């Protein structure tokens, strides 16, 4: 891997901005690179968040953990640019399939499409 930690976070955030995404969720240490000698990670778990908060031009980027899942479970529409409508419908349908049916029976899971 040629980049990791804060550099990776900035690269991915800028790549998504260039692709017209309005949101980018940063989790813990993006690459999990270990220190070459010491038994510790090179970057703190929240290094990416720190770097994004200091990056010029990215101060408007909101990091909203678990917002997508909550919106999909509640069948609410995401903010414009969050995700393409077709992809969003797949998520909403998936979370809807996990909800118990009206007669308290769990619905059958949505079958995966066969790519072959």
Helix-strand makeup class: mainly alpha
Number of domains: 2
Cα-to-Cα separation, first versus last residue: 31 Å
Quote the average pLDDT: 70
Radius of gyration: 18 Å
The portion of residues assigned to helices is: 25-40%
How would you describe the shape? extended
How many DSSP-defined strands?
A: 0
Give me the number of helical elements: 4
Q: What portion of residues belong to β-strands?
A: under 5%
Largest sheet data: none
- String of helices and strands: HHHH
| Uncertain ranges | 102-107
Pathway: Sulfur metabolism
Protein name: ATP sulfurylase 1
GO molecular function: ATP binding; transferase activity
Domain Sulphate adenylyltransferase catalytic: 1-67
Question: How would you characterize the overall build of this protein?
Answer:
The protein is 37% helix and 0% strand. It contains 4 helices and no strands. Helix 1 packs across helix 2 and helix 3 crosses helix 4. The chain has 116 residues and is an all-alpha fold. The protein is extended and about 50 Å long. It folds into 2 domains: 50 residues, no CATH class; 51 residues, no CATH class. About 5% of the residues have low confidence.
């Amino acid at each position: 891997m040629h980049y990791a930690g804060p550099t990776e976070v900035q690269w991915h955030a800028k790549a998504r901005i260039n692709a017209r995404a309005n949101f980018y969720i940063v989790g813990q240490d993006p690459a999990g690179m270990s220190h070459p000698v010491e038994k510790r990670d090179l970057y703190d778990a929240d290094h990416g968040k720190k770097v994004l908060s200091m990056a010029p031009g990215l101060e408007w980027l909101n990091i909203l953990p678990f917002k997508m899942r909550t919106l999909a479970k509640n069948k609410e529409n995401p903010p414009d640019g969050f995700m393409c409508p077709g992809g969003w419908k797949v998520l909403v349908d998936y979370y809807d399939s996990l909800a118990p049916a009206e007669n308290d029976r769990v619905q059958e899971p949505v079958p995966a499409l066969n790519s072959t």
